Amino acid sequence: MKFQYMQSQKQHERVFSFEFFPPKNQDAAVKLREARAELAKLNPRFFSVTFGAGGSTRDRTLETVVEIQKAGLQAAPHLSCIASSRADLRELLGAYKQHGIRHIVALRGDLPAGASKPGELPYARDLVEFIRTETGDHFHIEVAAYPEFHPEARDAAHDLQSFLRKVEAGANSAMTQYFYNSDAYYRFVESCEKMDITLPIVPGIMPITHYVQLARFSDRCGAEIPRWLRKRLEAFGDDAASLRAFGLDVVSELCRALLDAGAPGLHFYTMNQAAPTVAIWKNLGLPISNPVS
């Protein structure tokens, strides 16, 4: 009975995916290719590539997804609408169609530094509607979900209504912000089911490899690190190896619980590294087409 409200998610095929950010230079591009080659052995459904605030990484995002596609893999570029014009978005959608991209992660995004206005499409639901108007059903549209609620949300009810509007605008599926409290995800799904939202809601997973970096990022994006976990991570101090081993156990246990409860896959925030995700994958006993040495 505990996971009765996960029935909407159990009906979907499991989808695993990995997220990259576009490399800033040639050395970073080489390292990303190496990570991608290792992660490709896990046969993900797709690799997503982030899009900088106000389109600041537009060209690098496009180059990265095109390279992924040319390697025979499926790429899903992130696309944010804030501070972007309809004309720019239309041009970029055309470029993605030209290169055979069929999957978009549609986000509001963050205002770039110094900007004061959100632009012509201020919300993610506006972007989803725009993509549907411009391209029909060409793209599978992924949107973001926030089990612990968006850091700018007025309240939980308003945040759930915002998610509902994205679904009604034409989203096909969702991936969540990462979390370490599985109950937040289960309750979010339960709330969605009460609103007749039954599309796949794939949990976002952030491997734990570096506490200070994780804490800073989590505080900024609103992802809660439970107090018990913060204290355990803080206690490792400079013992990076022990921290990584502990983090691997914690995140593997989280992933196993989510899958057992009926989550329709996992979306890994890889930070352009293969090893942490591969280690979790092995702990879960998921298949590898070419074992990583």
Q: How would you characterize the overall build of this protein?
A:
Helix 6 links the parallel strand 5 and strand 6. This protein has a single domain, classed as TIM Barrel. It is an alpha/beta fold and 293 residues long. The model has no long low-confidence stretch (mean pLDDT 93). An eight-stranded parallel barrel has the order 1-2-3-4-5-6-7-8, surrounded by four helices. The longest helix is centred in the last third of the chain and has 22 residues. 41% of the residues are buried. The chain contains eleven helices and eight strands. Helix 5 packs parallel to helix 6 and helix 10 packs across helix 11.
Structural class label? alpha/beta
Global mean pLDDT: 93
As residue ranges, the low-confidence spans are: none
Q: Return the string of H and E elements.
A: HEHEHEHEHEHEHEHHHEH
CATH topology name, in short, is TIM Barrel
Provide keyphrases for this structure.
about 290 residues, alpha/beta, TIM Barrel
List the helices and strands and how they pair.
Layout: H1 7-10, E1 15-20, H2 26-40, E2 46-49, H3 58-70, E3 75-80, H4 86-98, E4 103-107, H5 124-135, E5 140-145, H6 156-169, E6 173-178, H7 182-194, E7 201-205, H8 211-221, H9 227-235, H10 240-261, E8 265-269, H11 275-284
